[in-house]
Design goal:
Blueprint: H1 2-8, H2 13-21, H3 29-60, H4 89-120, H5 125-152, H6 162-168, H7 180-188, H8 192-204, H9 210-220, H10 223-232, H11 234-239, H12 245-276, H13 281-307, E1 318-324, E2 330-335, E3 343-348, H14 358-375, E4 382-388, H15 410-429, E5 437-443, H16 445-456, E6 464-468, E7 485-489, E8 504-508, E9 515-517, E10 538-539, H17 566-575
Parallel strand pairs: 3-4, 3-5, 5-6, 6-7, 7-10
Antiparallel strand pairs: 1-2, 2-4, 8-9
Helix pairs in contact: 2-3, 3-5, 4-5, 6-9, 7-8, 7-9, 9-15, 12-13, 13-14, 14-17, 15-16
């Protein structure tokens, strides 16, 4: 029995060493490691219990046996590289083979042990325990080999990121408290309502692992199953963060074409019906339907024109990563494939942005690609994305209501979850190219959305933020945003950026519905003004422009992308990590005493009660020295 134990007591030690040595983390990697540790403990306890029973039986018969110690130290090994360094197919294959061997040998050992225990007249429960560990190892080996085979087919090979390995290889061991793993299984079977639940879950932004789970789920589907899902629900597949960018583009373009044809047909039918009817309520209703469909047509035209900016003038083709028609509309368009890029910049627009008017913002994203490409080292791949995945505040009657006011952070809070999830998706579907750089650029109210999303994903959101024309980020200091670097550019003539100076909290008085007053010279409605030296961000040069008698020029708020401007050149350098080429604003030798760490005011509850919009008072913005 001692010889039998010696041959099999370390059956899971090799797997434990592999898990420790290669720093496989995330998804089900941790639970798998713990399960392996628990099974190893059960295996050793089974042999020790068997030895103890036999020894006690010998004593009962008058013998004087010595009970051997059959436990061995837990294998200890550390990653040679100090952390995760890729999939390492060879090591994974070796671990699967070790588990297969354990799955084959332990049931046989359990059978031998059962015979020995039965002959001694003692309980055979330890033998059953050994057999059970063998069955567990066999099940794990089967699941892991199936998953590993799929992962090996990925174009990034053994450089799959840690999250993909965590859910792709070890997904069978991953915890699923929200039940989304079960929902994805239902989605794979063709349940469109399941896909809708996944999209809804990603939009609330609460689960930072969801995109990695989706990516692994998609990779494990066979090609026929993927195509069936795209054909059945192109818009939903195109909206799933974690699905490869090229697939999302294909699905969204299919949806765009289907919707375009359907709208044309509906409009033709409604216009014929309208002509046959006399004036009346029913005709009025038809007119409203026609207006709504015509608005969607204009949105489609705007998207098509934006996509046409790709593939010309040296730019890579544009990819359609998200599309929602109707209402103000939503979209995400990338110039370049973010899954294969060395540097990815995601731009978040601000007040007044709509899908119908996305052309201007798409032009800025394309211009940003052009500028970054000019200064980038050769063979560097860049992707520049315009992301309108939230409902931006509009300069209409909604400005007077807390739920939609540009002076309130409510819409930013609603957009932060979708933006955080979108960045989760970019990370999870990215095919490693060394060390990719992720940048998020927030303009105007978009910087408020960016700041709140960054704080929801501290340390994982992006490598750096660029804030231009920013009224605030709902943070007191740049360090609160949880990224490596924060860069701020502000024109001295930009009136919107100076909203950060306003003595208002952005909150709503529960009685009057007015914006709650804050402390003069303290944090503004969206936290500390990012251009304030006390905020602690890097500040880059934005050349001043002529201004009127107020000292402001509203055109300055949109001038950061002007051709051959210092601001555009600086943003290109930052995107490429060429920080030594950035024209920085000097920091005074003795900076003012930093403002206290302010907790952002409570976010307002949605309300239909009007609030009074603030009127900005001109404040001096950072003015560069020299030209």
């Amino acid at each position: 029995m001692v010889r039998l134990a010696g041959d099999h007591i370390s059956a899971l030690d090799s797997s434990m060493r592999q898990m420790a040595a290669h720093a496989w983390v995330g998804g089900g990697a941790g639970p798998f490691t713990q399960a392996t540790r628990d099974q190893r403990t059960q295996l050793q306890q089974a042999f020790e219990t068997a030895a103890t029973q036999i020894a006690e039986r010998i004593r009962a018969l008058g013998g004087h046996p010595t009970t051997p110690s059959l436990s061995t130290p837990l294998p200890a090994a550390t990653s040679a590289g100090g952390g995760y360094a890729g999939m390492n197919v060879e090591a994974m294959t070796r671990m699967v083979a070790d588990l297969e061997r354990a799955g084959h040998d332990l049931p046989a050992a359990g059978s031998q042990l059962s015979g020995a225990l039965a002959s001694a007249g003692v309980s055979v429960a330890p033998a059953q325990q050994v057999t059970g560990v063998g069955a567990w190892a066999a099940d794990q080996a089967t699941d892991l080999r199936r998953r590993l085979t799929v992962l090996q087919q990925r174009p990034d090979g053994d450089m799959a990121n840690a999250a993909v390995v965590g859910f792709g290889l070890f997904g069978g061991s991953a915890s699923d408290p929200s039940g989304l793993g079960t929902v994805l299984t239902a989605a794979a079977a063709g349940d469109p309502s399941a896909l809708e639940k996944v999209v809804a879950a990603q939009n609330d932004g609460k689960d930072p692992t969801l995109a990695s789970r989706v990516n692994s789920w998609w990779q494990l589907l066979d090609p026929a199953a993927r195509q069936r899902l795209i054909n059945a629900s192109p818009q939903l597949i195109g909206s799933l963060n974690g699905v490869p960018a090229a697939t999302r583009d294909s699905a969204n373009r299919a949806y765009l074409g289907l919707r375009k044809d359907a709208i044309a047909k509906q409009l033709a039918e409604l216009r014929q019906l309208e002509q046959r009817m006399k004036q009346g309520a029913r005709q009025s209703h038809i007119s409203l339907d026609i207006n709504a469909l015509e608005a969607e047509q204009r949105q489609i035209q705007a998207v098509e024109k934006s996509l046409a900016m790709g593939g010309v003038n040296g730019r890579p083709p544009a990819l359609l990563l998200h599309l929602e028609l109707g209402g103000l509309g939503k979209t995400a368009i990338s110039f370049g494939d973010p899954d294969k890029a060395d540097s990815v910049v995601t731009s978040v627009p601000g007040t007044g942005t709509t899908l119908e008017g996305i052309g201007g913002d798409a032009t800025r994203a394309a211009t940003l690609w052009d500028q970054a490409n000019i200064s980038a080292p050769s063979h560097t791949k860049i992707a520049s994305i315009i992301w309108l995945g939230y409902e931006a505040p509009q300069l209409d009657a909604g400005i007077l209501r807390a739920k939609t006011s540009v002076a309130s952070p409510y819409l930013a809070q609603a957009g932060a979850g979708p933006l955080a999830s979108f960045l989760d998706g970019l990370h999870s579907s990215h095919q490693p190219t060394g060390t990719p750089r992720f940048t998020v650029l927030g303009h105007s109210y978009g910087s408020v959305v960016t700041g709140m999303a960054a704080q929801a994903r501290k340390g994982t959101f992006a490598d750096q933020l660029i804030l231009v024309g920013s009224p605030g980020t709902m943070a007191a200091r740049a360090s609160d945003l949880g990224v490596k670097q924060v860069w701020v550019g502000e024109s001295p003539q930009d009136p919107v950026a100076d909203l950060g100076h306003l003595p208002l909290s952005g909150g709503r008085n529960p009685i009057s519905g007015l914006l709650t007053p804050w402390f003069p010279n303290g944090a503004g409605p969206f936290g500390t003004d990012p251009s304030n030296i006390a905020f602690g961000a890097n500040r880059f040069l934005v050349r001043p422009t002529p201004a009127g008698f107020t000292g402001y020029d509203i055109a300055a708020h949109s001038g950061y992308w002007a051709q051959r401007s210092a601001s555009l050149e600086n943003m290109g350098f930052i995107i490429n990590g060429q920080y030594d080429r950035v024209s920085k604003l000097p920091t005074p030798k003795q900076a003012p005493h930093p403002t206290p760490h302010l907790t952002p005011p409570p976010l307002p509850r949605p309300s239909s009660e009007p609030v009074s919009p603030p009127s900005p008072t001109p404040q001096s913005s950072p003015t560069p020295t020299g030209d």
